[in-house]
Structures are given as structure tokens and as C-alpha cells.
Sequence to fold (375 residues):
Amino acid sequence: MVRSKAVITFCIVAITSSITLADLPTHFDWRDVDGENWMTGVRAQGVCYSCWAFAAVGTVEAQFNIFFDWPDYDIDLSEEELVSDCFYYNCQGGWPDPALEYIRNSGITDESCFPYVDATCPGGCGCAHGCSNAECPDRCADWDIRLWKIDGVDDVGSTVEEIKNYIYNVGPLAVYMDWYHGEYDQETGIRKCNQCCSYDHCVVLVGWDDPEGYWICKNSDGNDWGPESNGYFKVGFGECGVQDFAFGVTLANPDIDKFRIENSLGETVAWFGDLGTIVLKGVLTTEVDPLNEDPETDEFRVQDSSGDDVAIIDTTNGNMRIKGALNEKLGASIPAPSEESSDFIIKNSNDEVVSYIDDSGNLYLKGKLYQNPNP
Fold:
């Protein structure tokens, strides 16, 4: 699908934390910031023309890693939701900016709730359900409490300075580019175009290199694809229209009223969401007695009325140890906390109990448990 630049109305954003081009590093790559890879894994779109969905999702996933200062957070969101009739219902091509607006307005569920099945759906719409192999009712039963949203979609502009500033200060960008007219330079491995622009492909822009003059792009053809067999490739500054349409996302408070647990370095290792969701950087261990394996660690403790530990979150690595058992769906088959007990209670903004740990160390959840941190 070819798109003309004339159909887009630009709303250029001001990056409040931007710095001048001269102050930016000559090489920057979100796969190696402070020695960590902040990008999620490279996915494979298959024969479906769904690069736009993968570009949008890849940008959002990385932004959650950055926002939570947790490079291994690595949520895996559902590209299938975007390609199905939940949103676009089309394996014939699309654009990441409307997809990002859908995620902002409606939210998007996770991959395990709505797995990608359109890898075998050809661009000509000869699929199981017309232009897709899945339909919105194929989502898991509890999809509505597994939604992830963003707070803003930014049209960044098309200059090198605007794009670099945004990548460096905010995060990766979903961009359009001309793939059809491009080829790799035999000496440098940098993709360039002999003419422009058909805007027939979408990727995630993750960094740049000034000495050789290229952008670093994340593709969606698998983690062993490309010139370096890692799912990434290089495209020259100003080449193939890659700077013409660039869209970023912002998070302000993506899951309101979180109860955060941090270590002594200020790094988030666990939290309770307002729907009762618990996210652990480590793993959950139950029926551990005694709970205190190392009294010297920086731990978050829950004690009963006798002062005995019934649950501990080790803030070194986010491991959670509870003395009792895990019980989900608070308010259904699970009893409410006892007023007489010294329960550790988490409430949402409506003053509803969404999680608690009782005197025996039993953990009750209204939502889901996420570890490492995928469901």
C-alpha cells in the first residue's frame, strides 16, 4: 500500500527534556543503554502485511521497559488484536499511527490472550476470516482486565534533530519507509533508495550512528533475519523516507494507583495494580517456613499480629515468598478480608479491596499474577 505524505496533518510536539544535537552521543542504540537491552524480542509477521502492527506494538513494548526503568520487563502485546476485526481487520497493509491511537483509546491485550495467527494469511485476503485468520471474539475470556494502554501518541517531526532528541529522551519510534526501492550498500551494509517514496513498510527506529550516517531499525521478520542475522538493519540518514513519518508514545500513569515496591537503589521490583494485578520482577514461592532466608537483604515484609513473617518480597531481585497459598478472583469464590485480622490490604481508587495477605500468609488477588513480568 502506498501512502502520500500530503494526507497527514502534522502536530509537532515539543520535547520538554530535549537537548541540542551537539550534546547527543554520536552513537545511540536502545539495545545497549547502560549495558542493557531495552527492546523486546523481534517478532515475525509472516506473509501477512502487518508490519504496521508490529511497529506499533514494538514501540509500545519498549516504552513500558523504559518507563518502569526495567529492561527485562518485556511485556508481549497482541499484534493479532490490531490485525483482527477488533481494529483494522486487514492483512493488506496499514499504518502504525492509527494503531497507536487505538492502543491509547481502547487498550490492547497480551499475546497469550490473543496469539498471532496471521503469519499464514496472505496479503490478498484469502484468509480464514476474509482479511485475517482471527476475529475479535477469539480473545481470551478475561481480555478486558488484561488491557495495556498508553497515554499519548506523538507525531515527532522529520528532521534528524527532532528524531534523535525523541529517541534519546523518550524512546523508540514507529516509522514508515520505502522498502521497494531500497537496497543494501555492499561495503557498508546500509540500506539506501534509488528513488522515493512508496511508504510500503513500517519498522521501529531504535537508534543511530553519526560516523557512518545511519538509523538503526527493528524489523518484523524474525530474530534471525537481516544483514546481521539479528532482526535489525541500518538505513541511511534521509534515505527511503524513513524520517518522514515518525510516531512515539508516552506513558504517564499506565496503571493507576500502583502500590510500588522498590529496592534501595530506587529500582521497581514489584507492584500491585489497582485491579489486583501483582507484577513481580522475580518469582513467587509459596509455603516457605521460615520465610526469612536472609535477614540482611533489603526486604519488604508482611507480618501477622504476632509479629511473625507471613510474606516477604526480596527487593534485591523481586522474589516473593508467602507462607500460605495463592488465591485469585477476590470477591467471587474468595472471601473478603476479615476486619478482626491484621491483613495487609491493597485498595483501588474506589476504595475496593483488590489484594490482601492474611495472617496465615495466604495471598488473595482480584486480578492476575505476572512474573518476570509476563502473564
Helices lie at 51-67, 79-83, 96-106, 160-169. Residues 82 and 88 are 6 Å apart (CA to CA). The chain has four helices and 21 strands.
